[in-house]
Amino acid sequence: MAASVREAGLALVDPTAYADDERFHAACALLRREDPVHRVDGPGYRPFWAITKHADVLEIERRHDLFLNAPRTLLMPQATEEQIAASGMALRTLVHMDDPDHRLQRAIAADWFRPAAMRRMEERIGVLARRYVDLMLEYGGACDFAADIAAHYPLYVIMSLLGLPESDFPRMLQLTQELFGGQDPERRRGETAEEQLTVLMDFFAYFKDLTGSRRANPTDDLASAIANAVVDGEPLNDFDTASYYTIIATAGHDTTSSTIAGGLHALMTYPDQLERLRADLGLMPLAVDEMIRWVTPVKEFMRTATADYELRGVRIARGDSVLLAYPSANRDEEVFTDPFTFDVGRTPNRHLAFGFGAHYCLGAALARMEARALFTELLPRLREIEPAGDPQWIETTFVGGLKHLPIRYKMR
């Protein structure tokens, strides 16, 4: 556990801390209490201000005109930043953009995630949820829920939405896990930044071919909408198109996988809440939001100040970076009653796991629908469940959750 505020701040640049819930949340709680706008100057990283209070994260999110996503969107070691910049392979996705580019490019996929589109997908998602609960039955009472179920079900949903062939799903899963798991010994590809950059190269090569195919032969899927998008009278260039595919294909399933695995783990950890939810499935929308708060799969985004700004009496200078610590904001004692208790009926639940404002997660409604469908299918069929080994979390400073959740169970 952190013995000082400085040590607590350094936990934010330590991937192993995110794989240790108790250690990480203790560090964040210390920062919230004693130094909620804390300067972190960790070895190997450029300095930044850690923003750990819910109100402060919300304030910065609201000021997207003043705090920009570019040029420093994510926390990464300085050497990695420099390597990516030199390679010319830096992603330019919606999360990297500011207005007007962000507003114009967000519109390309927005209709695919609106309520009407979600209603059209509901039946299909229900079918997929049953398919994966049936698969648990086929496993014979034991599986690694994170790796065998949670990793695949949302992948199938988003890949189907894009219109990719099922034969390519395993490749997309591996590439996603390598991209988001670049700091995890089990997930990363190679030890060096150069080796890990080859993951992006593989993504871009795949999506370049996909773009060519959908432009030559458009189909009724999201991949075609992206490939044939026109912004300000011009088609997207190949780099922006590949970046767009990458964020949809990766964030579109990995974060939901983390929520589903972490949600089941929370229900096992709090068996009274599991029984409460089983007895009243009408609580499912609230329970899913509590799972999202509890897990908070996106650990941080960064912003850069375009002018001097004062926050809690601390001067953030023009050009300074701030880190929005979403897991910390989502356990803020001033906002959430008993924030370290998992409560399937929590209301209100003003979590910031999807961000806020202009950059609110495009796929939030889809993520909620997928989790609701799976647990609505699973819980009535689940007679007993217990851990079958120790859970393991991904080492990361960006996106992640459980990578292994061994369980034993009996089903109807």
UniProtKB/TrEMBL annotation:
CDD domains: CYP142-like
Pfam families assigned: p450
Record-level GO BP terms: cholesterol catabolic process
Record GO terms (molecular function): cholest-4-en-3-one 26-monooxygenase activity; heme binding; iron ion binding; steroid hydroxylase activity
Ribonucleoprotein in keyword set: no
Keyword Iron: yes
Record's keyword terms, sorted: Heme, Iron, Metal-binding, Monooxygenase, Oxidoreductase
Domain of life of the native organism: Bacteria
PANTHER family: BIOTIN BIOSYNTHESIS CYTOCHROME P450, P450, PUTATIVE (EUROFUNG)-RELATED
Similarity remark: Belongs to the cytochrome P450 family.
Protein name: Cytochrome P450
Organism: Bailinhaonella thermotolerans
